[in-house]
Amino acid sequence: MKLQEILKLYQSLSAVHGLPTLDKNIWDLTVTTERLPTAPAVMEKLIHMHPVTGWFGFQSNIQVMRTGEAMPVLNKDTGLLLNAEISDAAGHSVHVRYDSAGSWLVTKFTPVSGTKYLADIVKLVIHRAPGGFLYYRRYWELANTQGMVPVTACFDSIVTE
Questions:
Q1: DSSP secondary structure of 52-71
Q2: Residue 129 above 80 pLDDT?
Q3: Considering the entire predicted model, what is its pTM?
Q4: How many independent structural domains does the chain possess?
């Protein structure tokens, strides 16, 4: 069965049974990863990506950047950047992970119209003040023996509702 057929069947079932909504498009993902040697180099890279929204996990705290806010900066109060997720106005999602070997992996996900993945949106609650929600776009792939399986979840946005 092709993804377009699965999507059509799912849409008819979801209308009757109140299932979560799947994106109406079928996607491919272009994934690029770069290894950077320092936290300041990572922050500089992220600045040049012009993030719209995201979150930053530092040694000493977690900071959220909502739409319209400035990106946080490294300082003595934050400590090193350990991980982060941002999105930009073009729909790219960027994941940053410290690899525990002294460098950082910066992975950029670029969704394009394609033939490989179905997608849905996952909403997670932010428990810290001022609250809100993290949104991730989850990509599903048709596996030969397992049916539809999640492949990755890409950060999409932060919303205070």
A1: EEEEEEESS-EEEE-TTSPP
A2: no
A3: 0.91
A4: 1
